[in-house]
Automatic annotation (TrEMBL):
Presence of keyword Transferase: yes
Keyword Iron-sulfur applies: no
Protein species of origin: Psychrobacter glacincola
Upper lineage: Bacteria, Pseudomonadati, Pseudomonadota, Gammaproteobacteria, Moraxellales
UniProt superkingdom: Bacteria
Gene name of this polypeptide: tusD
Protein name, UniProt field: Sulfurtransferase complex subunit TusD
Length: 145
């Protein structure tokens, strides 16, 4: 039986409670999917990686800013997403137009648009909206935070 692939469309600014909820949801989903996947692997002798699509859009693009400072008493969402992505080999795509309009750029776009430097956090990458459209094709369960 196949299940739909969740797509987390994160639009909330990193300071908003919904942005933190999105991270908690992703963690819980991936931990649960890993347990289920490992149980199935015992029967099938093949380990499958849990699948979760993530897309940062609108104000959530601020999450990808490596220069965003966070006080010690607050969760650093940028680092937490980077850690989760490394642990589960996740892609962290960010809408390029919403990122650029919020002052967040990678090296290529900084050169293309003659900007002074880049500030995209490691592990995140800028993509067009076509990436989101492709994630939404087929059997997709969209959750917006």
């Amino acid at each position: 039986m196949t299940t739909s692939t969740p797509l987390l469309l994160i639009t909330a600014d990193p300071s908003h409670p919904l942005a933190h909820l999105a991270l908690r949801y992703a963690r819980a989903y991936l931990q649960n999917a890993s347990i289920d996947t490992n149980s199935e692997a015992d029967n099938n002798s093949a380990i499958k990686k849990p699948v979760l699509n993530i897309f940062f859009y609108a104000e959530a693009a601020h999450t990808a800013n490596r220069l965003r400072w966070q006080s010690a008493d607050q969760t650093n969402l940028t680092q937490e997403w980077q850690n989760l992505a490394a642990q589960y080999q996740l892609s962290l795509p960010v809408c390029v137009s919403t990122a650029l309009s919020r002052g967040i750029s990678d090296t290529d776009n900084s050169a293309r648009h003659q900007l002074n430097g880049d500030n995209l956090a490691a592990g995140f990458h800028l993509v067009g909206l076509s990436e989101l459209a492709m994630m939404m094709q087929g059997d997709c369960r969209l959750l917006q935070f």
